[in-house]
Amino acid sequence: MMKNTPTTDNFPPGFIWGSATAAAQVEGAAWEDGKEDSVWDAFARIPGNVLNGDTPATAVDHYHRMPQDVALMKQLGLDSYRFSTSWARIRPGGRDVNPKGLEFYSRLVDELLEAGILPWLTLYHWDLPQGLEDAGGWANRDTAYRFAEYAQDVYAALGDRVRHWTTFNEPFCSSLLGYGSGVHAPGRQDPRAAVAAVHHQHLAHGMAVTELRELGAEQIGITLNLSNSIPRDPADPVDREAARLFDSLQNRIFLEPVLRGAYPEDSLKDLEPFGLHDLIRPGDMETIGAPIDFLGVNHYHDDLISGHPDTSGADGHGGGGARPKASPWVGAEHITFPSRGLPRTAMNWEVNPDGLRKLLVRLSQEYPELPPLYITENGAAYDDVVSGEGTVPDADRTRFILDHVQAVSAAIEQGADVRGYFVWSLLDNFEWSWGYEKRFGIIHVDYQTQVRTIKDSGLAYSRFAAAVRNGNSPAPEVPAAAPVG
Ligand code: FCB
């Protein structure tokens, strides 16, 4: 049971309280100062790909409003800002370096440091230059080499000021969703290409880790979206096998190459029909397993898994966007996600904070080689209403965030080495194939005027972080949230 007032105990000294965004979701300025299309610009232009025909072209205009946004971070008292650099801005079309693109990030980093905020940089949050997609994208091994070059460019410009480097954000999404299910850019539905994308992104990660390490980067890691895989009926072999498959595709084919330099044996067998064996060249796995300094964990919901058709009438996994959902579960399309009858967010994702505790404890127990963990994304979409007084009383989101923070605290108590938490997201933004329909921000954005308003959840998060920082003074009461059915 979650307590109504979260405790501030358990968080180790120096615990980082941050917030996150991604370039394609906030920057806008899609073709300014030399930037060319990323796969998301091109994908969003095709009718039917993104809800309401929304595109990332303007987003929340962070490219132009960056100083104001950093001032808001400072007002919230954030320790760190997790952002991503846009490859398509830095190497338009995947070609030569665009100094103007790098300048934007250099100004951002200076602004952050000036405000006392730690920059936490991600090199790839899904926005491949369209020029590289045209040459085969992540299905083409060459893209991994191009990524390593891009990593070096960014390090050359920012390495003197940025200590924390994340190679990839959620490779699951940009490989299996982008190339398998097609609900994400580039929208391909080709299981062999999806598996190739997995392997080539791993390789790109490993090569970038090696390069960045040689160049002198202090803290290098990757962010994975991991989930518990709970068989609907643990006594049913069909459900147990489905849960194994889901765990293999969602978690272990990402965790184990990176942490152990090897694909799990069962995953290798599962993915043999899709060509995984043929993709692995001598030396690849050693490169991929290059030691990292931290693992970022993104978590929004966990899943009950079944191998039987879903009769609950309510897929507990939610998801979708504008396009009919095709399965990203290469070779495991029969997996279903029965509802547990839990409250849901506006994404239709089930709310289960204790799932985060379980996941963190499991990782700590099953992976002795695990580096320190950071929750690099956690948060929730709800339909916000701006009040007559100009406030955004988002009690559901406040409850969600503080309950999950509490789950992190419980995991730490049980031995998980978690050193930071980044709420998703700083600002309402372009939520991929959902367009602007789903709001995750702790700061509300009026998309017509670009006016920003700190939501109540932002204020509560800020107060909670301050309470921890100031020596565990009593944390604020959490407003009761109406259940979302
Ligand atoms: C994650 C993404 C992030 C955001 C949240 C809601 O999968 O990394 O960009 O869209 O989901």
TrEMBL record:
It comes from the Bacteria. Its EC number is 3.2.1.21. The active site is at residue 377. Residues 306-328 are annotated as: Disordered. GO terms for molecular function: beta-galactosidase activity. Keywords: Carbohydrate metabolism, Cellulose degradation, Glycosidase, Hydrolase, Polysaccharide degradation. It is an enzyme of class 3 (hydrolase). It catalyses: Hydrolysis of terminal, non-reducing beta-D-glucosyl residues with release of beta-D-glucose. Pfam families: Glyco_hydro_1. Belongs to the glycosyl hydrolase 1 family. This is Beta-glucosidase.
